[in-house]
Design brief:
Length: about 110
């Protein structure tokens, strides 16, 4: 077990936004890894600002979804997914820059 591991003994209070990875040790066996991102200090204000779903070139590699972050801080998009209409997941470490930045996830 990592020297940085924290045993769960009750509710955990967060002062900053954080990405948490957790496992449970039960009967000598570890559970599967569970991950979640928790935002602290306000809600993310990220919207879909542009969609290119059928470029005139006909090249599907030029399709994109543009996100706009109006929040005053960068927002992690780890684990975000589009599940209706398109299938796309932001599964790797990504960050939508702060204060009015547009961003096209890849």
């Amino acid at each position: 077990m990592s020297s940085e591991a924290v045993a769960y003994t009750g509710p955990v209070e967060l002062d900053d936004s954080v990405h948490v990875k957790a496992r449970v040790l039960s009967g000598g066996a570890w559970s599967a890894l569970h991950e979640a991102t928790f935002l602290v200090g306000g809600e993310a204000n990220v919207v879909v600002s542009e969609i290119m779903y059928h470029p005139s070139s006909g090249n599907p590699a030029q399709e994109y979804i543009e996100l706009y972050n109006a929040s005053p801080a960068a927002v992690s998009t780890v684990g975000w997914q589009f599940t209706k209409g398109v299938t796309f997941g932001l599964l790797t470490v990504r960050s939508a820059r702060a204060s009015g930045s547009s961003w096209r996830p890849t």
